[in-house]
Amino acid sequence: MPTEESHGRAARLCLRILAAGLTLGALACGISIGSSTASPAGAQSVSSSTGIPSDNYWLADAQGAVWNFGDAPSLGSAASLPLNHPIVTITATKDDSGYWLVASDGGVFSYGDASFYGSTGAITLNKPIVGMAATPDGKGYWLVASDGGIFSYGDATFYGSTGSIALNQPIVGMAPTPDGKGYWLVASDGGIFSFGDAAFYGSTGSIHLDQPIVGMAPTHDGKGYWLVASDGGIFNYGDAAFDGSAAGGPALDPAERVVASPSGQGYWVEDQNGTAYPFGVAGSPPTEALMFTPVTPGDRAVLFAFAQLGKPYIWGGNGPVGYDCSGLALASWENGDNVGFARVSDDQYETAGQPVALSSLSAGDLVFWGSSQTDWTSVYHTAIYVGGDQIVEATGDHVQLNTLGQWGTGDLMPNGRRP
User: Which domain holds residue 324?
Assistant: First the structure.
């Protein structure tokens, strides 16, 4: 198989030594429930050097690996530990300086300034743990099982559960009230169960949903909340205003959560790959912690690429010892989902899968750089898109995480490719 070197094209970008720096993004349409005055408003983009929204975040996988992006610090992972059960959620501390990993048996692993207060790791559970919520002061947390069983630790108080109730659909998450004196549980059909000082404002329990509910977020005064479906659809209740939805957008990765802005005048819908869709007066989102579960072929390509981080850059390298830029792209798709395409960067840009606009990139898509944006033979570098403004690439002297716009947009080719 020909290498870039045998084609006689210098991979100039691959010879640069990079200073790693990272960030995130996108847009859509939606639905409003529970407010007769709510009306859709377009997503307000958060600009980066590429025009793609950007941010800082952690991604975790079921094996306990954690990858940090942007200014999110590298704090550690459970990837080297002998896990009894897979990791199912990651929760960040409020000051963005730590996080907890939680396994399906309720085992808790704490990093940074996240303190360990207890776990259900030694308890026989009726149903697996599916979520965690920290108390407002971060000195405790609740774990929630799929049957709505609640386990409280530290200064987290138990206010009730659905553990003894026959649910129509499983619980998928929970959210505490602003004062921590109550909480809501949310089921995949959007059924809401309120405890303590958490008031019930409405639910989608009796509505036919196109996609299941995956999360919720309360307003800052606790007098309303938003629900988000896996397609990015938003449902608002109480004083939670509807500012738009990511449903029908270009993303292939599912939405994972809705996050209220600090001002309370907007929110972000966040996909599992770190892409954030801002709505209303959202600005830049806080550092988020997200679970990355392979759903698409592109997700599997990204996970393979993540596993190669730190391996050396080798001209013409196809792995497993080392890679060049196009060799990493090809190996990630071949090993992730047995998808093959051309070996060198310019041929990949011309023939690998289908072209995709830079504004519609999803996890695993290939992005390219060339000396002429109208000449495919000028392409000299390939990278693998992660989410938002982030890429995995073989460049400098090793495989690394970087930003899509790190060198500006002058040589960035006008579209990516989806194999």
Answer: 12-20+296-418
